[in-house]
Each structure stands twice: as structure tokens, then as C-alpha cells.
Design goal:
By secondary structure, the chain is of the alpha/beta class. The chain folds into two domains: 268 residues, P-loop containing nucleotide triphosphate hydrolases (Rossmann fold, 3-Layer(aba) Sandwich), CATH 3.40.50; 206 residues, no CATH class. It is built from 13 helices and 20 strands. Strands 3-4-7-8-5-10-11-12 form an eight-stranded mixed β-sheet, sandwiched between helices. Helix 7 packs antiparallel against helix 10 and helix 10 runs antiparallel to helix 11.
Length: 565
């Protein structure tokens, strides 16, 4: 391109033709350098939700050698500039060209609508194409809605990785942070850990750091912060986190007096890109299949714990019902023995199927068992076409409901079961019909009136005593069944979380820690000491990592939600 300083006396508006781009792009600013927006084809992978979008530049060529990079960083760290720097490197743009191309969109609407953006770049002159997965970590990421954001990112990545035209492998996971940071912020640490918890253990050697706003010197502060935070990543021969330096001044207006500074910044970025793409040449790419396994295990764990909470709630309601009936029977013992009808109030629990309202789109449908009357998969049951495709199904049978019923007994719709309580005025006879099996009365064979009257009175008294015993036995039996179901679900939740711990890179996402906090006291009730200790060890490890960041309030928030003190 023509150098602006060589134009001499040419007026700025007389050389507009010199700003014609060598690439398919729209001029945004005529400055030095000229700023161009690449013209891209936009596609939404997730349909009407429009949360996972794909921007493609150039003619897609599947025969090109493709490199896939996942980019994560806090807003303000310079992630967009890094992405655009990669694109300019791929386009072959030089400092002397006085050009800078950008593919990212930094509008407020973009941050509000897209959770994941996939950039695809195909350049005819370059044998390597580039795919960048940009996870949008907006300022609201690390607040009280963080668990919902975890689920949202998890769901969108799952869709992206499982879609036929989606992403099936990753070459590098890049964490973007400022080179001058002497500590990783609470929000930054939360973002890094949330993303790490979505990946399997085999991705660790693909994790590198892109350090922005660098002066070219050794990023001592940033490296200390990374080590202190114990973030798993690729290490060099000196056991240092692998990192690359960038200045982020590529598109600033260049003052001729400071040309050397801008040139130095550009050359540092070029050198870092050379090293980074050389690293990508290694045969180190990882399939996302194990990551999909991690995401699926998390869904099964969420469904199992959700069902377990329902079982515990049902047990509490049954226990309350038993206490009320026993109290009523004690208060009316004499009346019952005299066979008088006694009315009393019983608080009864029952299940009702209701529409799902005011939920995020991924929680709008639930998979429910029509036999067990259970919500088998209530949360994040969004991607399944019907009940047979639901992630809680294994070998055509449900892994959650008590009967482990066939998927054909399940319905996936915008409804779920809820447990409600109502007051019922009942007589003792009505209780008997509900809680006791009835049979034919034995015939009387005695003739003496006095003996018969005595026998009948005794029989009545014994019969009333038996009624009371059977009522209590039925409720106690119900409680025992619920307890057994709870034990089975506890075992399944424990096995799932231990399986997850073996394949996931990080077991400290906010949702997983919440499940641990819920499960540990329940295992204590079951006297499963070994299981309880194993989960306590996992929680301790997760808390140690999280306490270095901003997730202490997550645990308090969950305690508030569950009523656990």
C-alpha cells in the first residue's frame, strides 16, 4: 500500500482511492492506519435463539489445514484486538501497509445477543484456515446469575461441538489477560475456572496465555499471578506457563514522532504470532468427544440431584402427614374405640402437572415419566427431539425415575410435576378405606346373646386398634420406600460425580460445588462415611481454588436457596 507520509502535498480527500482494501472489507476509518471491517457471512448455529453465531470470511475450503482456537478473557483484557491481530497475521498485513482489519463487532447489541461467536477465516493465499471460538464473558458473568451463565455456556458449547457442521476438535485454548496484572481478578478467575470445568483432562497441554498491553519485557507479574492461581496449562522447559506477548496498539492512529513505538508493538505481535502458529503446527489437537462426555455427565448429575431433592421433599411431607395422623388418632382414641366417626384435618401432598413458565429457553421443556409421575430431566432438557433422545436415557430406559421405565413411558413437553399440599377433612372410616385392605367380615357362629355382645364389643375394640396400626404401617412403609429411592439416587449421584472427577479438567464449577454441598450431609444421614469423605475431599479442593476468586458468595447463595445453614 502507498505510505501516507510519502504523499507529500496531496490533500487527504484527494487520495480516497488509495484506501481501497486489498481484501473484501468495508472502510470504517481513513486514518493511519486505515481501519477496515471484513465482510462476513453470518449464520446462527442454534436457530431462533441466535446465541451461537458463526461469522465466515472468505470462501470456505474444507481442504485447507484448519486450526481451531477457543478464546476466553474478561471484558477489557483486549481479547477482540488479539482476535483481529490473528486475522491480520493470516491476511499477511504488514506494518508498512498502513491497514488494520477487524472481524469482531464491539457493539452493545452484540454483547447482549451472542453468548458464543465462531469466526472462520479462509484466505486464498494462505494454506491454513483459522477458526476462533469466542466465549462472550460480559460484565454480568460473575454475579448472582453466574450459575445460569454456566449452564448457558455449557449448553451452547454442547450444541456447537455436537452439531454436524460444528466444531469437532480444538488446537488451543487461549486465556487472554493483561501482562501487567499482578493478580488474577475475582471475575477473571471465575471465568477461567468456569471454562476449564467444561473440558476434559486431555486439554491441559493445549492451554496457553495471550498477554496483552505488554511493553515487551518479561511479564513477571502476570506469570506469578498465573502460578498462584494454579491454573492448569502448557508449560515450557523451565516449567513456566507458555505465553505470548502483544501490545494492542495496532489500530491506534500513528503519530509520526512515535513511529518506532508503533512499529515495535507491531513487530512484537508478529513475532508472537509466528511462535503461536508454530506451536499450532504440533500434532496436539484434541477431539471434543470427551468434553461432550463431561457435559453429558453434568446433565445426568443435575437431573439426578434435582430428582433427589424432590424425593427428600416428598419424605418430609409424608413425615408431616404421619405425625398429623398419629396426633389425631391419639386425640380421638376413645372415640375410635367406640366406633364413632371422628372428623379431623389432614394435610395431604399430591402431584399435579403444570405448565413451565418464566424459565430460560433451555429449561422450557422437561422429560417426565407418566408411570412414576416424576420429573426425570427438568433442567437443561432442551436439545432432545423427544423423550428417547433425552440425555438421562440409557439403553432406551431412564436412569433417573424410580422404575427405570422405558422411554416410551416418558413425555417431553412444556409441563412438569409439582408437589402441592391441601387440607382435607376426613373421617376415620375414610382413612381406613385409603390405608387398609378391606376383606369380608367373618360370620358369627355363637348363639348366646350375652357372649355374642361381649365378643362383638371385644372384636370391635381389637378391630379399631388394628385400623390404627395399619394406617401407621402404611405411612411408615411409604416413608421406607421413599428412603430406599433416596438411597438409590444418592448412590447414582455419587457415582456420577466420581466419574466426572476422573474425566473433567476442573471439578469446581459453581453448579458442581452446589451439588457437593447438597449431597454431603445426605450421605452423612445414610452413614456412608467413605463416600462422604471422598466428596468432602473434592469439595475441599474445589473450595481452595474458588476461594482464590469470586465464588465464595455462590456457596452462600446456594445455602440460602436450599435453606441449609
Amino acid at each position: 500500500m502507498f505510505n501516507m507520509r510519502e504523499k507529500g502535498i496531496l490533500e487527504y480527500d484527494q487520495i480516497e482511492d488509495l484506501h481501497r482494501s486489498r481484501h473484501d472489507a468495508t472502510l470504517m476509518n481513513k486514518g493511519s492506519p486505515a481501519l477496515y471491517q471484513l465482510n462476513t457471512e453470518i449464520k446462527y448455529i442454534d436457530g431462533i435463539d441466535r446465541k451461537v453465531r458463526q461469522l465466515t470470511y472468505g470462501r470456505r475450503d474444507r481442504n485447507m489445514q484448519n486450526r481451531v482456537i477457543l478464546m476466553v478473557g474478561e471484558t477489557g483484557a483486549g481479547k477482540n484486538t488479539i482476535i483481529n491481530t490473528m486475522i491480520n497475521y493470516l491476511l499477511g498485513v504488514k506494518f508498512e501497509d498502513q491497514e488494520f482489519y477487524q472481524i469482531t463487532e464491539e457493539t452493545e447489541e452484540h454483547f447482549q445477543t451472542s453468548a458464543v461467536t465462531v469466526y472462520e477465516v479462509f484466505v486464498e493465499e494462505n494454506p491454513t484456515s483459522l477458526t476462533i471460538i469466542d466465549i462472550q464473558c460480559t460484565p454480568g458473568y460473575a454475579n448472582t446469575e453466574e450459575n445460569e451463565k454456566d449452564e448457558e455456556i455449557s449448553e451452547y458449547l454442547s450444541r456447537l461441538f455436537s452439531d454436524e457442521d460444528g466444531i469437532h476438535y480444538i488446537d488451543a485454548v487461549c486465556f487472554v489477560m493483561k501482562a501487567s496484572e499482578n493478580r488474577i481478578s475475582d471475575k477473571e478467575l471465575y471465568i477461567f475456572h468456569s471454562v476449564l470445568s467444561l473440558f476434559s483432562r486431555d486439554i491441559e497441554n493445549n492451554i496457553v496465555f495471550l498477554l496483552t498491553h505488554s511493553d515487551g519485557g518479561r511479564p513477571t507479574d502476570a506469570l506469578k499471578a498465573i502460578k498462584k492461581a494454579e491454573i492448569p496449562c502448557r508449560r515450557d522447559e523451565d516449567k513456566e506457563p507458555v505465553h505470548f506477548l502483544f501490545n494492542n496498539r495496532q489500530k491506534e492512529k500513528r503519530d509520526e514522532q512515535y513511529e518506532h513505538m508503533y512499529r515495535s508493538a507491531w513487530e512484537m505481535g508478529d513475532e508472537s504470532m509466528n511462535e503461536f502458529f508454530t506451536l499450532l503446527e504440533e500434532k496436539n489437537r484434541k477431539s471434543v468427544q470427551m468434553t461432550l462426555d463431561v457435559l453429558n455427565e453434568r446433565r445426568q448429575l443435575d437431573a439426578c440431584v434435582s430428582n433427589l431433592m424432590d424425593r427428600i421433599n416428598e419424605k418430609d411431607l409424608k413425615l408431616k402427614e404421619l405425625n398429623q395422623i398419629q396426633k389425631a388418632l391419639r386425640q380421638n382414641r376413645d372415640k375410635i374405640e367406640r366406633c364413632k366417626k371422628v372428623e379431623f384435618t389432614v394435610y395431604r401432598s399430591f402431584k399435579e402437572k403444570v405448565p413451565i413458565v418464566n424459565e430460560w429457553w433451555w429449561n422450557r421443556n422437561a422429560t417426565c415419566c407418566s408411570v412414576c409421575l416424576e420429573n426425570c430431566h427438568e433442567w437443561e432438557c432442551s436439545s432432545a427431539i423427544d423423550a428417547s433422545w433425552c440425555s438421562v436415557m440409557k439403553n432406551s430406559h431412564c436412569t433417573v425415575c424410580p422404575g427405570k421405565c422405558h422411554y416410551s413411558k416418558h413425555v417431553r413437553e412444556n409441563k412438569k410435576y409439582v408437589t402441592k399440599v391441601k387440607e382435607v377433612e376426613m373421617t376415620f372410616d375414610e382413612l381406613k378405606q385409603e390405608y387398609e385392605r378391606t376383606g369380608e367380615k367373618p360370620e358369627t357362629s355363637f348363639d348366646k346373646t350375652k357372649y355374642e355382645e361381649t365378643r362383638k364389643e371385644h372384636k370391635r375394640n381389637m378391630k379399631e386398634s388394628e385400623k390404627k396400626r395399619k394406617i401407621e404401617e402404611k405411612l411408615i412403609s411409604d416413608l421406607e420406600n421413599i428412603k430406599n429411592e433416596k438411597s438409590i439416587l444418592l448412590r447414582e449421584a455419587y457415582m456420577t460425580i466420581m466419574s466426572l472427577s476422573k474425566i473433567t479438567l476442573k471439578l469446581d464449577s459453581s453448579s458442581t460445588l452446589q451439588h457437593l454441598d447438597f449431597l454431603i450431609p445426605r450421605l452423612k444421614e445414610e452413614e456412608e462415611d467413605e463416600w462422604m469423605k471422598n466428596l468432602e475431599d473434592l469439595r475441599k479442593t474445589g473450595e481452595e481454588q474458588k476461594n482464590k476468586g469470586a465464588l465464595r458468595h455462590v456457596m452462600d447463595f446456594f445455602s440460602y436457596l436450599t435453606g441449609k445453614k
